[in-house]
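for the writeup, i need someone to sanity check this before i put it in the appendix. the sequnce is what the collaborator sent (i think, or maybe the updated version? ugh). structure was predicted straight from it, no edits. if anything looks off just tell me and ill rerun, i have time this weekend
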Amino acid sequence: MINAFPADVLFGNRAASPPASKAAVIPPFDSDSAWVASDPPPKAPPIPPVPPVSPVPPRPNPSREAEVDPEDPSAPFVALPSPDSLEEVSPRQPTTPLAEETFRFATSPQEEISQPSAASSPAWVAGFISAGLSLILLALQYCTVQLIFHGAPWLGTAGQGFIQPTWGSALLTFWIRMLMVLPLMIVIGHGIYPPLLEEMQEVVRSRDRRPLISIVLSSLLLFLSQLLLYRSIGISSASVAVGLLFVYPAAVNLFGVGLFKRPISQQALLTLLPIGLGGMILLVQSGSAGVNPGGLSAICFALYVLVGRLYTRHLHLLTLTVMQFGLAWLFSMPALLLLRQASPANEVGYVVACLVLSLTVFLNYFSIRRV
């Protein structure tokens, strides 16, 4: 009975005995080949080298379509568009404006790029000519006013103008000037800017009354400025009156600081100092009574510039100007009933001079718009 079981079964040597059934056999654990977390990770298999990429063939030129032989089996098949549907694009010329600017700055210093200079720009030349023309028309405008009130030696009327220089004659001259300029402004302005009348109606009908109030106040200041200027020319001279009027840039900056808290730069301050100095010299050297109306004219004109652009920056300049001119003309009509009018000594000469004055005002406005 003792020898009924073999020795390998008794001592656990199961590897030598055949399996009793067909179940899966678990292989023995090999501690030498097992990976432990404390050991370094196994190395990844090496990555095979990437084969070199063949260069991209150059883009075919449609102008050389005849050089491709379709019968040649070794030639690659390329679908070429027609020359009419393909724009000639240089490899150094991008296709978009942004890419053009980027490419322009990214070019090598060896490649010269021709760029137009600012001095040869036609816009700069046109602006310079317009500024000179505006200066000539402005001088002719105020010389015409002096001719109306004081005459001219070359006309044989030195010291005696077409009308006596009074407050009523200054007001009448301004009224006739606006009466002649306003229809021209409306007709020519509508041709340049077609929505002129519609934009004027929008300002009047708008629920926001601030633009309309700004236009009304600036029109009143424009009327007072021109009336005081004409009166100053009538009792002194055009040089003194206009010299005082052009002190208004300094007044604009002073009012801007006091009313709107706008800072003045150092460059602007250095520019305005000579203007203020010139105005003080005129006040000291000229003992004429025309100095006071001229100084008030500069103050009114400075306020006109400031108030006129408070809430009207969204409007076209023609719309704003036509409304200001029209309202200033309306403000002068009640004053004509209050002030006594003087009869012109030379009615024909007075009307012709007013016509010349109106044309200079009209042409000067459109020359300023070109600057």
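Confidence is low (pLDDT under 50) at residues 7-16, 85-120. The CA atoms of residues 138 and 345 lie 26 Å apart.
thx in advance!!
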